[in-house]
Amino acid sequence: MGRSGTHVIVVGNEKGGSGKSTTAFHLAVYLMYQGFRVASIDVDSRQQTLTQYVRNRRKWAQAHDLQLPHAMHFHLPPSKSDSIKENQRLEFDLFRQAIIEVEGDADFLIVDTPGFDTHLTRLAHSLADTLVTPLNDSVIDLDVMAHVDPVTGDPREMSHYARLVQRARTERLSIDGRTIDWIVVRNRISMLPSRSAKMVLAALDKISVRLGCRVADGIAERVIFRSLFPTGMTVFDPLDEELLGGLPSMSHLSARQEYRQLVEALRLPVSDKAAARIAAAKALAESAGSATKFEHMA
Ligand SMILES: Nc1ncnc2c1ncn2[C@@H]1O[C@H](COP(=O)(O)OP(=O)(O)O)[C@@H](O)[C@H]1O
Ligand SMILES: [Mg+2]
Description:
Radius of gyration: 19 Å
Bound molecules: adenosine-5'-diphosphate, magnesium ion
CATH superfamily: P-loop containing nucleotide triphosphate hydrolases
Largest sheet: 7 strands, parallel
Helix content: 40-55%
Strand content: 5-15%
């Protein structure tokens, strides 16, 4: 995977509601505004949040005649057969097909995974070049990474999910000698400083050393994320006062800034091909007098 230039970003965490789908969608839209070609796959066949997000965006853009970037998107159909084996085979084939289709065409492939362990979740993880794990900012949620001593905050034992990632890494190494860059990002951080938040941060520091992952600055808890979902918009889209019922708020601009910082922290590679394409598009836009098209909205 990714050998002909498509870099695979998997968003995973074995827990629902940690912000995987929101993060996957924001990463996709942000990278498109940067001028990259982006494809996405929704591996969560039960909830299909990412797929719904993509649909909402297309409908909204059409209804309001908006020129918005859209990712090439794939999703799995709800399973039809009663046989688990047969379903697994079908899912696997679909997944493989989607990957073959985007390979070389997309600069980035973003894979959203469900909050439970399936063979497809495992497969997706072993194909990751970059793994992003959003984590709710609470001591309880640390359990997804490691079981932590409640008093000292020291990691005692790897969690089920951390073991899944470790296996994916081993597998990946044996397939093509590559490793998975794993980044954990705290999500829905409370604006109020608390003892618990401090403890999470300190424990994460220790956990990251043990598990071989990096910790990125987090994303704050913001109402805006919930209000954008029905429109399929993200904090990166140009905001129309009329359409969204208000000017971009401070909270909105800060959310952009936080996601930008997250992408920086990911240290994603830019292929020569993508860099040349983006430079050419920029030059073209400048000569046409609209230099802003391939820059992200400030
Ligand atoms: N930073 C945030 N601030 C506020 N709400 C958030 C934030 N990130 C995600 N949410 C909300 O949390 C819920 C779960 O997010 P989602 O991305 O669907 O999680 P997952 O895919 O891990 O189940 C959604 O309602 C989403 O709008
Ligand atoms: Mg989800």
